Amino acid sequence: MGMDFLTRRGALLAGAAALVSACVPTGGGRSSGGGGYRAPDPAPRPVPNAGWDAWVEGFRDRAAGRGIPQGTIDAAFRGAGFLPQVIEKDRNQTEFKRSLEDNLNIAASDERVSLGRQKYAQYGSTLQAIESRYGVEAHVVAAVWGLESFFGTRRGNVPVISALSTLAYDGRRGEFFESQLTAALRILQSGDISPGAMTGSWAGAMGHTQFIPTSYLEFAVDFTGDGRRDIWSEDPSDALASTAAYLQRSGWTRGLPWGMEVTLPAGFNADLLGRGKGKSAAEWSALGVRAAGGGALAGGSIIAGGGPYFLLTQNFATILRYNSAQNYAIGVGHLSDRLLGRGPVQASFGPDAAGMTQADRQELQRRLTARGFDTGGTDGVIGAKTRAAISAYQASAGLPVSGEPSLDLLRRLR
User: pLDDT tens across 204-232, in order?
Assistant: First the structure.
Protein backbone atom coordinates (compact mmCIF):
# COMPACT_ATOMS: atom_id res chain seq x y z
CA MET A 1 0.00 0.00 0.00
CA GLY A 2 1.46 -1.71 -1.40
CA MET A 3 6.12 -4.98 1.77
CA ASP A 4 9.00 -6.96 1.87
CA PHE A 5 6.04 -9.12 1.89
CA LEU A 6 7.73 -10.91 4.59
CA THR A 7 9.50 -8.03 6.23
CA ARG A 8 7.33 -4.93 6.06
CA ARG A 9 4.17 -5.86 4.31
CA GLY A 10 4.82 -9.23 2.85
CA ALA A 11 2.95 -11.34 5.19
CA LEU A 12 0.18 -8.85 4.64
CA LEU A 13 0.31 -8.34 0.95
CA ALA A 14 1.59 -11.75 0.12
CA GLY A 15 -1.91 -12.58 0.98
CA ALA A 16 -3.50 -9.21 0.77
CA ALA A 17 -2.66 -7.30 -2.30
CA ALA A 18 -3.14 -8.75 -5.59
CA LEU A 19 -2.11 -5.29 -6.26
CA VAL A 20 0.11 -5.85 -6.09
CA SER A 21 0.24 -8.58 -6.06
CA ALA A 22 2.73 -9.25 -7.15
CA CYS A 23 0.83 -6.88 -9.23
CA VAL A 24 1.23 -3.17 -9.31
CA PRO A 25 -1.64 -1.39 -7.61
CA THR A 26 -3.88 -0.42 -10.41
CA GLY A 27 -5.71 2.50 -8.99
CA GLY A 28 -8.08 1.16 -11.46
CA GLY A 29 -10.74 2.17 -13.73
CA ARG A 30 -11.70 5.11 -15.81
CA SER A 31 -8.74 5.05 -18.12
CA SER A 32 -8.42 1.37 -18.52
CA GLY A 33 -9.38 -2.05 -18.69
CA GLY A 34 -6.66 -1.88 -16.14
CA GLY A 35 -4.59 1.14 -15.22
CA GLY A 36 -6.10 4.48 -14.42
CA TYR A 37 -7.59 6.27 -11.45
CA ARG A 38 -10.76 4.96 -9.87
CA ALA A 39 -12.87 6.75 -7.26
CA PRO A 40 -12.65 5.10 -3.84
CA ASP A 41 -15.24 2.50 -2.92
CA PRO A 42 -17.62 3.43 -0.09
CA ALA A 43 -16.28 2.62 3.37
CA PRO A 44 -17.60 -0.76 4.58
CA ARG A 45 -20.14 -0.81 7.40
CA PRO A 46 -19.87 -3.17 10.37
CA VAL A 47 -22.53 -5.80 11.00
CA PRO A 48 -23.42 -7.65 14.22
CA ASN A 49 -21.39 -10.82 14.76
CA ALA A 50 -21.43 -12.64 18.08
CA GLY A 51 -18.28 -14.61 17.25
CA TRP A 52 -16.32 -11.41 16.60
CA ASP A 53 -17.67 -9.92 19.85
CA ALA A 54 -16.41 -12.92 21.80
CA TRP A 55 -13.04 -12.84 20.06
CA VAL A 56 -12.61 -9.15 20.88
CA GLU A 57 -13.29 -9.82 24.57
CA GLY A 58 -10.50 -12.36 24.59
CA PHE A 59 -8.19 -10.06 22.67
CA ARG A 60 -8.79 -7.23 25.12
CA ASP A 61 -7.25 -9.36 27.86
CA ARG A 62 -4.30 -10.31 25.65
CA ALA A 63 -3.71 -6.69 24.67
CA ALA A 64 -3.78 -5.59 28.31
CA GLY A 65 -1.28 -8.32 29.08
CA ARG A 66 0.99 -6.83 26.42
CA GLY A 67 0.99 -3.50 28.21
CA ILE A 68 -1.71 -1.66 26.26
CA PRO A 69 -3.62 0.68 28.61
CA GLN A 70 -7.30 -0.13 29.12
CA GLY A 71 -8.27 3.36 28.02
CA THR A 72 -6.54 2.87 24.66
CA ILE A 73 -8.26 -0.49 24.15
CA ASP A 74 -11.67 0.94 25.02
CA ALA A 75 -11.25 3.92 22.69
CA ALA A 76 -10.04 1.73 19.84
CA PHE A 77 -13.02 -0.63 19.93
CA ARG A 78 -15.64 2.02 20.59
CA GLY A 79 -17.55 1.98 17.31
CA ALA A 80 -15.46 -0.84 15.80
CA GLY A 81 -17.18 -3.87 14.33
CA PHE A 82 -17.06 -6.94 12.14
CA LEU A 83 -16.60 -6.14 8.42
CA PRO A 84 -17.77 -8.98 6.17
CA GLN A 85 -16.53 -7.09 3.09
CA VAL A 86 -12.98 -7.48 4.40
CA ILE A 87 -13.38 -11.27 4.61
CA GLU A 88 -14.82 -11.28 1.10
CA LYS A 89 -11.85 -9.36 -0.28
CA ASP A 90 -9.43 -11.63 1.53
CA ARG A 91 -11.14 -14.67 0.05
CA ASN A 92 -11.47 -13.35 -3.48
CA GLN A 93 -8.12 -11.86 -4.39
CA THR A 94 -7.12 -11.80 -8.03
CA GLU A 95 -5.57 -15.12 -8.98
CA PHE A 96 -3.79 -14.16 -12.18
CA LYS A 97 -0.43 -12.46 -12.28
CA ARG A 98 0.01 -9.59 -14.69
CA SER A 99 2.86 -9.54 -17.14
CA LEU A 100 5.70 -7.09 -16.74
CA GLU A 101 4.37 -5.25 -19.79
CA ASP A 102 0.96 -4.77 -18.20
CA ASN A 103 2.51 -3.77 -14.90
CA LEU A 104 4.62 -1.10 -16.55
CA ASN A 105 1.63 0.15 -18.53
CA ILE A 106 -0.20 0.54 -15.23
CA ALA A 107 2.72 1.86 -13.18
CA ALA A 108 3.61 4.48 -15.78
CA SER A 109 0.23 5.12 -17.37
CA ASP A 110 -0.21 8.54 -18.94
CA GLU A 111 -2.57 9.49 -16.13
CA ARG A 112 -0.21 8.39 -13.36
CA VAL A 113 2.82 10.05 -14.93
CA SER A 114 0.91 13.29 -15.52
CA LEU A 115 -0.40 13.46 -11.96
CA GLY A 116 2.98 12.39 -10.62
CA ARG A 117 4.80 15.21 -12.35
CA GLN A 118 2.28 17.68 -10.94
CA LYS A 119 2.75 16.29 -7.43
CA TYR A 120 6.52 16.14 -7.87
CA ALA A 121 6.52 19.83 -8.72
CA GLN A 122 4.07 20.71 -5.94
CA TYR A 123 6.08 18.92 -3.24
CA GLY A 124 9.49 19.38 -4.81
CA SER A 125 11.00 21.34 -1.93
CA THR A 126 9.74 18.78 0.61
CA LEU A 127 11.04 15.87 -1.45
CA GLN A 128 14.42 17.53 -1.83
CA ALA A 129 14.61 18.15 1.92
CA ILE A 130 13.76 14.49 2.50
CA GLU A 131 16.48 13.47 0.04
CA SER A 132 18.99 15.64 1.85
CA ARG A 133 18.14 14.11 5.22
CA TYR A 134 17.80 10.45 4.26
CA GLY A 135 19.87 10.12 1.08
CA VAL A 136 17.06 8.62 -1.01
CA GLU A 137 16.41 10.41 -4.29
CA ALA A 138 13.24 12.49 -4.44
CA HIS A 139 11.94 10.87 -7.62
CA VAL A 140 12.27 7.38 -6.11
CA VAL A 141 10.28 8.34 -3.00
CA ALA A 142 7.68 9.97 -5.24
CA ALA A 143 7.42 6.83 -7.37
CA VAL A 144 6.67 4.67 -4.32
CA TRP A 145 3.97 7.21 -3.40
CA GLY A 146 2.57 6.93 -6.91
CA LEU A 147 2.33 3.16 -6.90
CA GLU A 148 1.07 2.79 -3.34
CA SER A 149 -1.76 5.34 -3.35
CA PHE A 150 -1.88 7.03 -6.76
CA PHE A 151 -0.11 10.02 -5.18
CA GLY A 152 -2.36 10.14 -2.16
CA THR A 153 -5.67 9.87 -3.99
CA ARG A 154 -6.35 6.30 -2.77
CA ARG A 155 -5.12 6.09 0.81
CA GLY A 156 -7.95 3.84 1.96
CA ASN A 157 -11.08 4.58 3.96
CA VAL A 158 -11.52 1.32 5.90
CA PRO A 159 -11.36 1.62 9.73
CA VAL A 160 -8.11 -0.13 10.58
CA ILE A 161 -9.14 -1.51 13.99
CA SER A 162 -12.28 -3.04 12.48
CA ALA A 163 -10.40 -4.48 9.50
CA LEU A 164 -7.53 -6.00 11.47
CA SER A 165 -9.76 -7.42 14.20
CA THR A 166 -12.05 -8.93 11.56
CA LEU A 167 -9.11 -10.60 9.81
CA ALA A 168 -7.56 -11.75 13.10
CA TYR A 169 -10.90 -13.23 14.21
CA ASP A 170 -11.36 -14.91 10.83
CA GLY A 171 -8.18 -16.81 11.55
CA ARG A 172 -6.81 -17.55 8.10
CA ARG A 173 -3.73 -15.53 9.00
CA GLY A 174 -4.87 -14.83 12.52
CA GLU A 175 -1.51 -14.59 14.26
CA PHE A 176 -0.18 -12.10 11.75
CA PHE A 177 -3.24 -9.87 11.86
CA GLU A 178 -3.41 -9.98 15.64
CA SER A 179 0.18 -8.76 15.74
CA GLN A 180 -0.81 -5.90 13.43
CA LEU A 181 -3.83 -5.11 15.59
CA THR A 182 -1.64 -4.93 18.69
CA ALA A 183 0.75 -2.64 16.83
CA ALA A 184 -2.18 -0.45 15.77
CA LEU A 185 -3.15 -0.07 19.43
CA ARG A 186 0.38 1.01 20.24
CA ILE A 187 0.12 3.68 17.55
CA LEU A 188 -3.11 4.93 19.15
CA GLN A 189 -1.42 4.83 22.55
CA SER A 190 1.34 7.11 21.22
CA GLY A 191 -1.21 9.75 20.22
CA ASP A 192 -0.13 9.98 16.60
CA ILE A 193 -3.70 9.41 15.36
CA SER A 194 -7.19 9.00 16.81
CA PRO A 195 -9.16 5.75 16.38
CA GLY A 196 -11.70 7.40 14.08
CA ALA A 197 -9.02 8.82 11.81
CA MET A 198 -6.99 5.60 11.61
CA THR A 199 -8.14 4.38 8.22
CA GLY A 200 -6.42 2.42 5.48
CA SER A 201 -6.83 -0.46 3.08
CA TRP A 202 -9.06 -3.44 3.76
CA ALA A 203 -5.97 -5.33 4.96
CA GLY A 204 -4.69 -2.61 7.30
CA ALA A 205 -2.08 -0.78 5.18
CA MET A 206 -2.22 2.92 5.97
CA GLY A 207 -1.47 6.34 4.58
CA HIS A 208 0.12 7.77 1.48
CA THR A 209 2.67 4.99 1.19
CA GLN A 210 0.64 2.19 2.80
CA PHE A 211 2.55 1.19 5.92
CA ILE A 212 1.24 -1.69 7.99
CA PRO A 213 1.23 -0.98 11.74
CA THR A 214 4.41 -2.88 12.66
CA SER A 215 6.34 -1.08 9.93
CA TYR A 216 4.92 2.22 11.07
CA LEU A 217 6.23 1.60 14.58
CA GLU A 218 9.67 0.77 13.21
CA PHE A 219 10.11 3.36 10.47
CA ALA A 220 7.61 6.22 10.67
CA VAL A 221 9.10 9.65 11.35
CA ASP A 222 7.82 13.09 12.32
CA PHE A 223 9.35 15.08 9.46
CA THR A 224 7.19 18.17 9.97
CA GLY A 225 8.15 18.47 13.64
CA ASP A 226 4.59 18.80 14.95
CA GLY A 227 5.01 15.97 17.44
CA ARG A 228 3.02 13.42 15.42
CA ARG A 229 4.04 10.90 12.79
CA ASP A 230 1.05 11.62 10.57
CA ILE A 231 0.98 9.48 7.43
CA TRP A 232 -2.81 9.87 7.04
CA SER A 233 -3.32 13.61 6.48
CA GLU A 234 -3.57 15.48 3.21
CA ASP A 235 0.01 16.65 3.77
CA PRO A 236 2.18 13.71 2.63
CA SER A 237 5.41 14.96 4.23
CA ASP A 238 5.61 12.50 7.13
CA ALA A 239 4.59 9.57 4.91
CA LEU A 240 7.18 10.40 2.24
CA ALA A 241 9.91 10.87 4.82
CA SER A 242 8.94 7.59 6.49
CA THR A 243 9.32 5.82 3.16
CA ALA A 244 12.74 7.38 2.67
CA ALA A 245 13.71 6.30 6.19
CA TYR A 246 12.59 2.77 5.38
CA LEU A 247 14.67 2.63 2.20
CA GLN A 248 17.67 4.25 3.88
CA ARG A 249 17.68 1.70 6.67
CA SER A 250 17.24 -1.09 4.14
CA GLY A 251 20.51 -0.17 2.42
CA TRP A 252 19.76 2.49 -0.20
CA THR A 253 22.86 3.99 -1.85
CA ARG A 254 22.44 7.58 -2.98
CA GLY A 255 23.62 8.22 -6.52
CA LEU A 256 23.26 4.61 -7.64
CA PRO A 257 20.44 4.06 -10.16
CA TRP A 258 17.82 1.41 -9.43
CA GLY A 259 18.69 -0.10 -12.78
CA MET A 260 18.21 0.67 -16.45
CA GLU A 261 17.05 -0.78 -19.71
CA VAL A 262 19.95 -2.20 -21.69
CA THR A 263 20.59 -3.64 -25.13
CA LEU A 264 22.52 -6.86 -25.67
CA PRO A 265 24.75 -7.72 -28.61
CA ALA A 266 23.90 -10.47 -31.08
CA GLY A 267 24.92 -13.85 -29.78
CA PHE A 268 24.86 -12.77 -26.13
CA ASN A 269 25.18 -15.74 -23.77
CA ALA A 270 21.74 -16.17 -22.16
CA ASP A 271 23.30 -18.11 -19.30
CA LEU A 272 24.58 -14.77 -18.00
CA LEU A 273 21.03 -13.51 -17.45
CA GLY A 274 19.28 -13.67 -14.10
CA ARG A 275 19.31 -12.07 -10.69
CA GLY A 276 22.30 -13.21 -8.71
CA LYS A 277 24.55 -13.29 -11.78
CA GLY A 278 25.90 -9.80 -11.35
CA LYS A 279 28.93 -8.25 -12.99
CA SER A 280 30.64 -4.89 -12.81
CA ALA A 281 29.83 -2.12 -15.27
CA ALA A 282 33.21 -2.66 -16.93
CA GLU A 283 32.57 -6.39 -17.35
CA TRP A 284 29.15 -5.82 -18.91
CA SER A 285 30.55 -3.17 -21.21
CA ALA A 286 33.30 -5.54 -22.35
CA LEU A 287 30.59 -8.06 -23.23
CA GLY A 288 28.87 -5.52 -25.48
CA VAL A 289 26.04 -4.48 -23.14
CA ARG A 290 24.90 -0.88 -23.61
CA ALA A 291 22.46 1.40 -21.79
CA ALA A 292 19.37 1.67 -24.01
CA GLY A 293 19.10 5.40 -23.39
CA GLY A 294 22.80 6.03 -23.69
CA GLY A 295 25.04 6.93 -20.80
CA ALA A 296 27.01 4.90 -18.32
CA LEU A 297 26.25 1.38 -17.20
CA ALA A 298 26.14 0.32 -13.57
CA GLY A 299 27.11 -2.94 -11.97
CA GLY A 300 24.39 -5.49 -11.35
CA SER A 301 22.42 -8.36 -12.82
CA ILE A 302 20.56 -8.44 -16.14
CA ILE A 303 17.13 -9.99 -16.53
CA ALA A 304 14.96 -10.61 -19.56
CA GLY A 305 11.66 -8.76 -19.45
CA GLY A 306 9.81 -10.41 -22.29
CA GLY A 307 11.30 -8.11 -24.91
CA PRO A 308 13.38 -5.50 -23.13
CA TYR A 309 16.31 -6.32 -20.86
CA PHE A 310 16.94 -4.61 -17.53
CA LEU A 311 20.17 -4.24 -15.60
CA LEU A 312 19.27 -4.20 -11.90
CA THR A 313 21.56 -2.76 -9.20
CA GLN A 314 21.78 -3.20 -5.45
CA ASN A 315 19.26 -0.37 -5.05
CA PHE A 316 16.76 -2.55 -6.88
CA ALA A 317 17.27 -5.13 -4.15
CA THR A 318 16.52 -2.39 -1.62
CA ILE A 319 13.20 -1.63 -3.31
CA LEU A 320 12.44 -5.34 -2.99
CA ARG A 321 12.73 -4.88 0.77
CA TYR A 322 9.75 -2.54 0.45
CA ASN A 323 7.80 -4.93 -1.76
CA SER A 324 9.22 -8.28 -2.75
CA ALA A 325 7.44 -8.48 -6.12
CA GLN A 326 9.97 -8.05 -8.94
CA ASN A 327 7.46 -6.40 -11.28
CA TYR A 328 6.49 -3.93 -8.57
CA ALA A 329 10.11 -2.92 -8.02
CA ILE A 330 10.71 -2.47 -11.75
CA GLY A 331 7.52 -0.40 -11.82
CA VAL A 332 8.85 1.88 -9.07
CA GLY A 333 12.13 2.29 -10.91
CA HIS A 334 10.52 2.97 -14.27
CA LEU A 335 7.98 5.42 -12.83
CA SER A 336 10.80 7.23 -11.02
CA ASP A 337 12.55 7.66 -14.37
CA ARG A 338 9.37 8.91 -16.02
CA LEU A 339 8.89 11.51 -13.27
CA LEU A 340 12.27 12.91 -14.29
CA GLY A 341 11.07 13.25 -17.89
CA ARG A 342 12.67 10.13 -19.29
CA GLY A 343 10.85 8.14 -21.94
CA PRO A 344 9.02 4.80 -22.03
CA VAL A 345 10.72 1.44 -22.35
CA GLN A 346 12.38 1.36 -25.77
CA ALA A 347 12.28 -2.33 -26.70
CA SER A 348 9.02 -3.90 -27.77
CA PHE A 349 7.40 -6.64 -25.74
CA GLY A 350 6.50 -9.81 -27.58
CA PRO A 351 3.01 -11.27 -27.96
CA ASP A 352 1.22 -12.39 -24.80
CA ALA A 353 -0.03 -15.91 -24.05
CA ALA A 354 -2.97 -15.31 -26.39
CA GLY A 355 -0.62 -14.30 -29.20
CA MET A 356 -1.65 -10.64 -28.94
CA THR A 357 0.62 -7.62 -28.87
CA GLN A 358 -0.21 -4.47 -26.95
CA ALA A 359 -1.35 -2.91 -30.22
CA ASP A 360 -3.72 -5.87 -30.75
CA ARG A 361 -5.16 -5.48 -27.26
CA GLN A 362 -5.62 -1.75 -27.72
CA GLU A 363 -7.39 -2.34 -31.05
CA LEU A 364 -9.64 -4.90 -29.38
CA GLN A 365 -10.59 -2.34 -26.74
CA ARG A 366 -11.27 0.31 -29.38
CA ARG A 367 -13.52 -2.02 -31.39
CA LEU A 368 -15.45 -3.24 -28.37
CA THR A 369 -16.06 0.34 -27.26
CA ALA A 370 -17.19 1.31 -30.76
CA ARG A 371 -19.75 -1.52 -30.62
CA GLY A 372 -21.11 -0.15 -27.33
CA PHE A 373 -19.19 -2.42 -24.97
CA ASP A 374 -17.25 0.03 -22.80
CA THR A 375 -13.75 -1.14 -21.86
CA GLY A 376 -13.02 1.98 -19.82
CA GLY A 377 -10.08 2.98 -22.00
CA THR A 378 -7.63 1.68 -24.56
CA ASP A 379 -4.36 1.14 -22.74
CA GLY A 380 -4.00 -2.48 -23.82
CA VAL A 381 -4.24 -3.77 -20.25
CA ILE A 382 -6.90 -6.46 -19.98
CA GLY A 383 -8.49 -5.61 -16.66
CA ALA A 384 -11.88 -6.29 -15.12
CA LYS A 385 -13.70 -3.73 -17.24
CA THR A 386 -12.31 -5.06 -20.51
CA ARG A 387 -13.11 -8.64 -19.49
CA ALA A 388 -16.68 -7.59 -18.67
CA ALA A 389 -16.97 -5.92 -22.08
CA ILE A 390 -15.68 -9.06 -23.80
CA SER A 391 -18.17 -11.19 -21.89
CA ALA A 392 -21.05 -8.88 -22.79
CA TYR A 393 -20.09 -8.93 -26.47
CA GLN A 394 -19.71 -12.71 -26.48
CA ALA A 395 -23.14 -13.12 -24.91
CA SER A 396 -24.72 -10.73 -27.42
CA ALA A 397 -23.14 -12.61 -30.33
CA GLY A 398 -24.18 -16.04 -29.07
CA LEU A 399 -20.58 -17.05 -28.38
CA PRO A 400 -19.30 -19.02 -25.40
CA VAL A 401 -18.74 -16.45 -22.66
CA SER A 402 -15.15 -16.55 -21.41
CA GLY A 403 -14.20 -12.91 -20.97
CA GLU A 404 -10.83 -13.73 -22.50
CA PRO A 405 -9.19 -11.70 -25.29
CA SER A 406 -8.05 -13.48 -28.45
CA LEU A 407 -6.99 -12.79 -32.01
CA ASP A 408 -10.13 -14.60 -33.20
CA LEU A 409 -12.26 -12.19 -31.18
CA LEU A 410 -10.37 -9.26 -32.68
CA ARG A 411 -11.05 -10.59 -36.20
CA ARG A 412 -14.74 -11.03 -35.43
CA LEU A 413 -15.00 -7.37 -34.48
CA ARG A 414 -13.69 -6.13 -37.82
Answer: 999 999 999 999 999 999 999 999 999 99
Tell me how far apart the 2 most distant CA atoms of the chain are, in Å: 69
Q: Which residues contact 344 (CB under 8 A, 6 or more apart)?
A: 108, 338
Domain annotation for the chain: domains and CATH numbers: 50-91+155-249 (1.10.8.350), 358-412 (no CATH)
Concatenated DSSP letters of 225-250: -SSS--SSSS--HHHHHHHHHHHHHT
The 8 Å CB, 24+ separation contacts for 114-123 are 115/37, 115/146, 115/150, 115/151, 115/153, 116/142, 116/143, 116/146, 116/151, 116/335, 116/338, 116/339, 117/339, 119/145, 119/146, 119/151, 119/152, 120/339, 123/236, 123/237, 123/240
User: In which region does residue 276 sit, left (phi positive, over 0), alpha (psi from -120 to 50) or beta (all else)?
Assistant: left
Report the pLDDT value the prediction gives residue 92, as an integer from 0 to 100.
Answer: 77
Which of 378 and 19 is assigned the larger pLDDT? Answer: 378
Give the pLDDT confidence of 32-41 residue by residue, as tens digits. 344 445 566 7
Write down the pLDDT at residue 93: 65
Provide the phi-psi class of 259: left if phi over 0, else alpha when psi is between -120 and 50, else beta: left
- Stronger pLDDT, 297 or 5, i.e. the higher one: 297
